[in-house]
Amino acid sequence: MNLMSSHFETHSGAPAPVARSLCKRTLDIVLAALLLLLLAPLFVLVGMAIKVESPGAVFFRQQRSGLGGRPFTILKFRSMRVHRDQHVAQATRSDTRITRVGAIIRALSVDELPQLFNVLRGDMSIVGPRPHALAHDQRWSLLVADYPRRFRARPGLTGLAQVRGNRGEVFSVEDIAARTRDDNAYIDSWSLALDLKIALATVPLIFADPNAY
Cβ–Cβ contacts within 10 Å for residue 203, how many? Predict the structure, then answer.
């Protein structure tokens, strides 16, 4: 089964039963704790590099929508220069806000790793719809009818939309509509096996993803 294909077959159904949801949550906790332990040296190195290159906090914090649309504070390694502009704007290719260290960690998706703490706290899952800024959620909910349905699951570090290439900068309504279709297809067809396939399909994208910038 090719998860990179937009022809990925799904089946409709109700949200996962309680037992399977508890199993998913248990695996999230175990995997997040293990990865945080293994990646601790990398966290230290990245944090030092960020502090040396530019003033400001090591971590970037922003409000995102989680399960049921409830807001939570997402964590990322800071990849941009600190600025006072409160306008929420997606990063673009050759974005002048991005630091040199930021460009590297964004290309490898290392900037997303602090979200493992969000997974431990229960804000996120390893696999699920990617969370967006609140302002973008509000806008896209008005443009795409099925967009709010993606809040039926915890947001994830990676997801079906990401392994299909539907990630990164949004250029049109169809871009976010395609991402929404993938997110809802994932929720409707959820299983632990599907999570494993998506997680495995994510690995090669760490080293070569044209949409990571």
Answer: 10
Please give the model's pTM, rounded to 2 decimal places: 0.83
| Parallel/antiparallel/unpaired status of strands 71-77 and 59-65 | antiparallel
Distances in Å between the alpha carbon of 8 and those of 11, 147, 151, 196, 202?
10, 19, 21, 15, 16
- Residue 2 domain-assigned? no
Domains of the chain: total: 1
Structural domain for 129, as ranges: 18-207
What sign does the CA torsion over 159, 165, 169, 171 have?
negative
| 142 touches 149 (CB < 8 A) | no
Q: Report d(CA 106, CA 205) in Å as an integer.
A: 12
- Which tokens is 87 given? 């306008």
User: Read out DSSP for 127-186?
Assistant: ESPPP-BHHHHHHHHHH-TTGGGGGGS--EEE-HHHHTT--S---SHHHHHHHHHHHHHH
pLDDT tens, 32-56? 999 999 999 999 999 999 999 988 9
On whether residue 9 sits in a domain, the answer given is no
- Scan for tokens 């998506």, then name that residue: 198
Residues 195-204: tens digit of each pLDDT: 999 999 999 8
Distance, in Å, from the CA atom of 81 to the CA atom of 94, rounded to the nearest integer, reads 14
Q: Which of 100, 74, 102, 99 is nearest to 88 (CA)?
A: 74
Residue 36 lies in a domain: yes
Token pair 């602090």: residue: 114
Domain assignment present for residue 100? The answer is yes
